[in-house]
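Re: duplicated header lines in exported structure tokens

Our pipeline writes sequence and tokens for each protein into one text file. With two proteins the header for the second block appears twice in some exports. Here is an export where it did not happen, for reference. First protein block:
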Amino acid sequence: AKKTWREVPHDAEVDIAPSSRSSCRQCREKIVKGDIRMRLWLQFHKGCKVGAYFHGTMSCFFEYPETAKLSGAEELVGLKKIPDSTRKIVEKCFDSLIKEADVGEEPKKKKRKIVKS
């Protein structure tokens, strides 16, 4: 049985760019060797997944709509493999993203009571 796009788990990875060949999906600029690089595995309609790279510390990764599904840095594959200083930078970026999302939420609308006269 084939899995639909809703049944396939959402994947995100972080690593250090081994070369300068990859480019950011959001801003289309090259990711320099040694920089933090994020990868999202995006599901397409035919059932295949394609990896899309993003700058790790810039807003490029967090502007992409699929990142709204991530709840924190602990969901990133490869987070434990990168150096501690880099890991702290990534976690700080996610913390600021979550705080912005909490502040930016719209207040819940109250139900109106219907008064019969």
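Second protein block, exported in the same file:
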Amino acid sequence: VIKGISNTTLEGSSVPVRLDEWLETYNGGFSAGVLRTFQTMKNASFPAQWATDPYVLAPHVKPALRVDKSLTGIPRFGTWDSKEGAVVPNIFGPYDARVLRCTFALLGQEVHLRAGAPPSMYARWSAFLAAHPG
């Protein structure tokens, strides 16, 4: 669910966008493909900037558009949002954030982005996994 963005055209807009992307439901489980992905990721190598540069997928973005300093905009141990409540890192957040920032960069649009999840999502996902083993 992406909150905080209107349906207006953003291309070339000079108005900064504040975008909160919260993962609220996830019902994926562990399959052979997921386990194989974990193995592959463990053995993969990435450029050093992949771990820290929020704009790694948009390396030629204008300096004025480089407004975010962290990958997800959510501190490691979470934060409090006045509308959402507690928000913690989202397991897909680093990937989502990179793709969204790249998209906004291609549009020439400044965006302040946060990609997170309410802690309750992880409790529901754990219950789902317990009810659907294997």
